[in-house]
Automatic annotation (TrEMBL):
GO terms assigned for molecular function: ATP binding; ATP hydrolysis activity; nitrate transmembrane transporter activity
Keyword Cell membrane: yes
Keywords: ATP-binding, Cell inner membrane, Cell membrane, Ion transport, Membrane, Nucleotide-binding, Translocase, Transport
The protein's name in its UniProt record: Nitrate ABC transporter, ATPase subunits C and D
Gene Ontology annotations for the cellular component aspect, listed alphabetically: plasma membrane
Membrane topology: Peripheral membrane protein
Protein's organism: Gloeobacter kilaueensis (strain ATCC BAA-2537 / CCAP 1431/1 / ULC 316 / JS1)
Stated family: Belongs to the ABC transporter superfamily. Nitrate/nitrite/cyanate uptake transporter (NitT) (TC 3.A.1.16) family.
Length: 652
């Protein structure tokens, strides 16, 4: 049992006319002793209501709240609250306000001991010099410190903070956050804090609880803060985890705000009245990368419209947002990293799986590894040079766009091929593609693996160089696919067919070299990648700049569509995900693959367009410097690696 437990708790209020308002419903949360937990969410999501339930100021109308195994049935000295309004008694001095709380809770102790407790907490919040002043004679920040000292002086088991610094100016707020952090690190009291400030939550917390919108709000997500302790503000903002997690929190709050304003409707299964399609208005998600070309071309060149589709392209900040959009049914489909669907199918996201399918291959190649320029200056030209340089140095931090991506799998494979353990010798962090260059420039990461135009931008700005591209790692590797929910495909077979036809036409248009100049102008537009065309042209045009004077003509750097001829490439993705512990390797691996790569509609669409797709089957596969993957014995392939961190096998 956790120290503080909220078990299936709910809170209903009855209005003046007898109307019932359900503020919270089915809230479950476990907090360990000494943990610092923050609660965030859109206005009106019940954050303060939840805090008051823990305090016992409002009792749960369903479920229960316990502290150290004892049910909360009202206020108690084991739980003290510091509010945004400090609630000090104006006729008492700072010392007397704290002493009043001490006498109320520790009245059985002697006067000298009570005085010692008061003086100790005055020193703790650095208010000894102001101890004999009244609240009206000190600043707002000092009054807030008095409120915190008064709460701590009662020696509670749990300190509850309701936006304690919300009304303060930025400078005072920053100072008090640092002071609270030092107090918590010294005493390790259990703290639950409500805040609107995501930077504050990341600086102070062990975990951050994200509440869904009300009414009937619940715990939507819980984020573990991946920042080492002890913390200081400067160290925190220079940690790459900070920016990734900050953006995830801001994205959550932005999504909640739009939903509260009616801006993120759940997809409706409406049937089109004017055509035979089950649905014509589609929301398709993409991340701003050069290889979002199939969606952009299908939209801008009219291929969606020709198939009777009214498409809205939704630009998302990263692959986590794409994944959530599919699962939450905000998106009909997405141009997404292919391993995402396999990870979802095999339960890699640690919840009940929502079947996703890779319905059509959209792109191949298109990725590169970028390292910081200092490695070039230290003589690094290859992964072997990089491996030699690692001895006796700090672990480099390398960015990947998603754990469930070809970028992650290819980067890990590249590192391991030089004897570099990607989980021990370097630190891999997930960063959305558009943020890679900013993090490299700030020194938060030492390199990354991403699609374009972000490698090209790092090279163009003199920040780094490219030791390897897709053509060095695995020429022709599968990259992005059309990802759908299986349930969506089942409910919209004719719409699915029309969507696939439009994308086949778009890929065919994009593959024509004579269209590349127009293609670059389309994809770099503000609505899509929003980048200087010079960056995207370095990959899409066939001319590639590795940095520091090395250039090459890479005609196949970006390939569009490209049906598979060797199904073992799918087995490679599964085997590598199993190698690194993302999923257990299934006993019936072939069935697992067939459940994800569902291409009947793709092949039907191609046939109706007169496009002949090659026959495909399982054949041995070997990447540069890799053992042969024989589909007759994938276990032998997995066992061949000197560096791997697999899970136990699992049935499908």
């Amino acid at each position: 049992m956790a120290f503080l437990e909220i078990q299936n708790a709910g809170k209903c209020f009855i209005g003046k006319k007898g109307e019932r308002f359900e503020a919270l419903k089915g809230v479950n949360l476990q907090i360990e002793e000494g943990e610092f937990v923050s609660i965030i969410g859109h206005s009106g999501c019940g954050k303060s209501t939840l805090l008051n339930m823990i305090a016992g100021l409002n009792l749960a109308t369903s479920g229960r709240v316990t502290v150290a195994g004892v049910p909360v049935n009202g206020p108690g000295p084991d739980r003290m609250v510091a509010f945004q309004n400090h609630s000090l008694l104006p006729w008492l001095t700072v010392r007397q306000n704290i002493a009043l709380a001490v006498r109320a809770v520790h009245g059985e102790r002697g006067a000298e001991e009570q005085k010692q407790i008061v003086e100790e907490h005055l020193q703790l919040v650095q208010l000894v010099a102001a101890a004999d002043k009244k609240p009206g004679q000190i600043s707002g920040g000092m009054r807030q410190r008095v409120g915190i000292a008064r709460a701590l002086a009662t020696r509670p088991k749990v300190l509850l903070l309701d936006e304690p610094f919300g009304a303060l100016d930025a400078l005072t707020r920053g100072r008090l956050q640092e002071q609270l952090l030092k107090i918590w690190e010294a005493h390790r009291i259990t703290v639950v804090m409500v805040t609107h400030d995501v930077e504050e939550a990341l600086l102070l917390s062990d975990r951050i609880v994200m509440m869904s919108n009300g009414p009937a709000a619940r715990v939507a997500e819980v984020m573990g803060v991946e920042l080492p302790r002890p913390r200081s503000r400067m160290e925190v903002i220079n940690n790459p985890h900070y920016y990734r997690q900050r953006n995830e929190l801001l994205y959550f709050l932005s999504k909640a705000k739009k939903a509260a304003q009616g801006g993120i409707p759940r997809l409706q299964p409406a049937t089109s009245a004017s055509t035979s399609l089950e649905k014509t208005a589609l929301s398709l998600g993409f991340v701003p990368l050069s290889d979002c070309v199939p969606f952009v071309v299908a939209q801008q060149k009219g291929f969606f419209a020709e198939q009777g589709l009214n498409v809205t392209l939704v630009r998302e900040p990263g692959w986590k947002a794409i994944h959530e959009g599919l699962i939450e049914e905000r998106l009909d489909a997405a141009l997404a990293v292919t391993p995402m669907a396999l990870g979802e199918s095999l339960g890699s996201f640690r919840r009940a799986a929502v079947p996703l399918i890779a319905a059509m291959p959209l792109t191949r190649n298109g990725n590169a590894i970028t390292l910081h320029r200092r490695y070039w200056e230290q003589g690094v030209r290859s992964r072997e040079d990089f491996a030699r340089l690692l001895a006796g140095t700090r672990r480099p931090v390398l960015g990947v766009v998603s754990a469930h991506s070809m970028h992650n799998l290819l980067l890990r494979h590249w590192l391991a091929g030089a004897g570099i353990d990607p989980d021990r010798d370097v630190e891999l962090v997930v960063i959305p593609p558009p943020q890679m260059v900013a993090n490299l420039r700030a020194g938060n990461i030492d390199g990354f693996c991403s699609g374009e135009p972000w490698n090209a931008r790092a090279v163009h700005e003199g920040l780094g160089f490219v030791p390897a591209t897709s053509l060095d790692l695995w020429s022709g590797h599968p990259e992005k696919s059309l990802i759908l929910r299986q349930s969506w495909a089942d409910a919209h077979p004719r719409t699915h067919l029309a969507l696939t036809k439009a994308l086949l036409e778009a890929c065919r248009w994009a593959a024509d070299a004579s269209h590349r100049e127009e293609l670059i102008a389309l994809v770099t537009a503000k609505a899509f990648v929003n980048a200087d065309p010079i960056y995207a042209s370095l990959g899409l045009s066939g001319s590639y700049d590795y940095g520091f004077g090395r250039t090459a003509h890479l005609e196949d750097f970006n390939l569009f569509e490209g049906a598979s001829t060797n199904l073992s490439e799918r087995l490679w993705i599964l085997a590598q995900m199993a190698r690194w512990g993302l999923v257990p390797f299934p006993v019936d691996w072939q069935r697992a693959i067939e459940r994800v790569w569902c291409e009947d509609t793709y092949r039907q669409a191609a046939a109706e367009l007169g496009i002949v797709l090659p026959e495909a089957g399982y054949q041995p596969l070997a990447l540069p410097g890799d053992a042969i993957l024989d589909p007759a014995d994938p276990g032998a392939y997995l066992a061949s690696f000197a560096i791997s961190h697999p899970q136990l096998p699992a049935a499908v």
